[in-house]
Write a structure and sequence with these properties.
With 171 residues, this protein is mainly α. The protein has helices at 5-22, 38-60, 75-85, 88-107, 113-116, 138-158, 163-169, and strands at residues 67-68, 119-126, 129-137.
Length: 171
């Protein structure tokens, strides 16, 4: 069994940051050049969360699985995810449900320590840079969500806020 309290906290911080951006004076703050806007960030997180849930569920089902985040970087897929979710509020609701599902599945009795140690072929990219192209233990994939993916996108969301709003949001 995996302790998912840090994962829950990371999702909560991301969703709080997303709500802060949505409630900001500028409802659609412009991202820095070549960066995503808030909805694109949330769609990406939703897609990565879905891929992580799929990998965890696959291992729990005894199936061969892989973990590949390239689809979560595809511009068309991101835009379709935004449209299907109905925008920012729908994306936040979707991510909230995904967080609950991932935490329940990864942190419950569904997986043994041996299953969490299963090597999953993984390919992870960020900004056109290959970060991982090798098998990873499933627990490390989930830990990556907690330690890098969610905190990184939380910071990315907060960077969309005017300076005074960032100060208030991080107090």
């Amino acid at each position: 069994m995996l302790d998912t309290s840090s994962l829950q906290d990371a999702y909560r911080a991301l969703l709080d940051a997303a709500a802060t951006v949505a409630d900001a004076d500028d409802p659609s703050p412009a991202p820095p050049d070549s960066e995503w806007n808030a909805d694109q960030i949330l769609a990406h997180v939703s897609l990565v969360s879905a891929a992580t849930i799929a990998a965890v569920a696959g291992i729990a089902a005894g199936a061969n699985t892989t973990y590949d985040n390239r689809i979560a970087l595809d511009a068309w897929t991101i835009e379709q995810t935004i449209a299907h979710a109905g925008g920012s509020a729908g994306l936040r609701d979707r991510i909230s449900g995904q967080a609950a599902a991932l935490c329940a599945l990864a942190g419950g009795a569904a997986l043994t320590d041996a299953e969490l140690s299963t090597l999953v072929p993984a390919r992870l990219l960020s900004n056109d840079t290959l970060l991982v192209d090798q098998p990873m233990p499933l627990r490390d994939i989930v830990a990556g969500m907690t330690e890098a993916e969610l905190p990184g996108h939380t910071k990315q969301l907060l960077a969309l806020l005017p300076d005074r709003a960032v100060a208030e949001a991080t107090r």
